[in-house]
Amino acid sequence: MAGGLNDLFSRLGGRRGDTPGNTGASAAAAGPDLIYPTKALPKFLATMSAKPAPALLDLGPVVGGNVSFFGEELGCRIRVEDVFGDIERHALNGTLDALPEYFRTRFKSEPGTVDGILCWDVFDYLERAAAASLAAALARLLVAEGSLLGFFSTTSDAGRAQYTKYLVVDQGNLRYRTYSGTRVRQRSLQNRDIIKLFESLRVSDSFLMKTNMREIIFRKPAYLAGL
Questions:
Q1: Where are the domains positioned within the chain?
Q2: What's the CA gap between 205 and 219, in Å, rounded?
Q3: Please, are residues 116 and 53 in contact by the beta-carbon 8 Å criterion?
Q4: Nearest 5 degrees, angle CA 38-CA 65-CA 203?
């Protein structure tokens, strides 16, 4: 893709489950690892495997095991942009109101150059204006028929200031690893609000999990690629 994607798979290596780096928040309060099934990830992988050397964007944080997994499964180029770190930094600096403008120019890659995006649950930690700005920026990055995978909590997090790293165990399972941070989940988005957030994309798969998480795959249809 234009400007080039960092081949973190070759640079970081690592065994699955390794977690080099964090979002800048202390990991001292990290919770126990819990493993849960995922239905959206295998669908996302199947879509990406149909593309030769797909370009992936992971919104972070950097997890060496995930980079290894996607590199081995897809032979892909993967770039990690730690948006969770961006949110935490703005929260600590008291500049959360600047996030909508920040996200408009956050990504330097050319529009229409990313095949797949891993959002995890980043939208749960954003106010509406910042979420809309980030969603629009990501939609612009996707190629025609590109896919975006997002997780959206359906319940309140009881005010716990923490984030979650999603470590890929295999195609059907994820290890949840919580760590301390400044932000709490802002709200539980209704399905219609999530769809409205990605108005230039279309839902291809949606799963309501027993973990109180909605897993959604969005696709950028060719007829909307110019939006």
A1: 8-153+163-224
A2: 9
A3: no
A4: 35
| Structural domain 8-153+163-224, CATH architecture | 3-Layer(aba) Sandwich (3.40)
pLDDT computed for residue 172 by the predictor = 97
The tokens for 132 are: 């809309």
Region of residue 174 (phi > 0: left; psi between -120 and 50: alpha; otherwise: beta): beta
Which regions in the chain score pLDDT beneath 70? 1-32, 157-158, 225-227
Structure tokens at 122: 């980043």
Confidence (pLDDT) at 203: 97
23, 82 contact by CB (below 8 A): yes
> Residue 126 has what pLDDT?
96
Token reading at 197: 């957030």
Task: Report how far apart, in Å, the C-alpha atoms of 225 and of each of 15, 146, 206 are.
Answer: 37, 9, 21
d(C-alpha 171, C-alpha 69), whole Å:
9
Segment (H or E) for 66? helix 64-74
Q: How far apart are CA 56 and CA 103, in angstroms?
A: 18
